[in-house]
Automatic annotation (TrEMBL):
Any one biological process term the GO annotation gives: division septum assembly
Gene name tied to this protein: engB
Keyword NADP: no
Protein name in UniProt: Probable GTP-binding protein EngB
Family statement: Belongs to the TRAFAC class TrmE-Era-EngA-EngB-Septin-like GTPase superfamily. EngB GTPase family.
Length: 219
């Protein structure tokens, strides 16, 4: 496993392509609570997954430079459907319901968990899931459950350590190393770990470049 914090080669076009991509049209399309409500699979999809309150919506907003594109909340479990956003004309971003603790009725949690499982297993247009892990805490048991699900669904995923600014600089290499070790034997894990801070803007350029590169490869 690698980190993406190293500088990109000077001739790498994807940082600039990614910047333009996320600076372009990014609009809310729809929220789907059932599979039959999902849009046609006419473009690539990148999805954001993670524990409740890990910062998925904040990252979507930071990447696009729009403060309220995705609704954020201090209440775990606010996102209870698959929220679709355009990413230029070639892709969708999908903000998935958080897993783990959520202040919502048990039946609601069960319903959207079932939706997520079905989405991961049957969405041919899904190019990659970006699995957000809180850098302050690392991979927890509930995250391992999500990793198991992604591996069993053979869904390509890439881990993103969020809130990296809240980890002491001296402790960051160890956190990255332990995360890489935990992912080393997982078959569906993409071998580059991203590190971001929505609040400080850290790692956003690398994230945008990774998405631009993925779209180019799948094109």
């Amino acid at each position: 496993m690698e980190s993406s914090v190293m500088d990109a080669p000077e001739d790498d076009p994807f940082p600039e392509i990614g910047r333009k991509l996320f600076a372009g049209p990014c609009d809310f399309v729809m929220g789907a609570a059932r599979l039959e409500q999902l849009p046609a699979m006419d473009r690539l999809e990148i999805a954001f997954a993670g524990r409740s309150n890990v910062g998925k919506s904040s990252l979507v907003n930071a990447l696009t430079g729009r403060k309220t594109l995705a609704k954020t909340s201090n209440t775990p479990g606010r996102t209870q459907q698959l929220n679709y956003f355009t990413l230029g004309s070639e892709a969708y971003m999908v903000d998935m319901p958080g897993y783990g603790y959520a202040q919502a009725p048990v039946e609601s949690v069960r319903t959207w968990t079932s939706l997520v499982r079905a989405y991961l297993r049957g969405r041919a247009s899904l190019a990659r899931v970006f699995l957000l892990i809180d850098a302050r805490h690392g991979i927890k048991a509930v995250d391992n459950d999500a990793l198991d699900l992604l591996d069993s669904a053979a869904t390509s995923y890439q881990v993103v350590l969020t809130k990296i600014d809240q980890v002491k600089l001296a402790d960051q290499p160890a956190r990255l190393a332990e995360t890489a070790a935990a992912l080393s034997r997982r078959p569906a894990a993409f071998p580059v770990i991203l590190q971001t801070s929505s609040r400080e803007g850290l790692g956003l350029a690398e994230f945008r470049a990774a998405v631009a590169r993925l779209i180019d490869e799948r094109r």
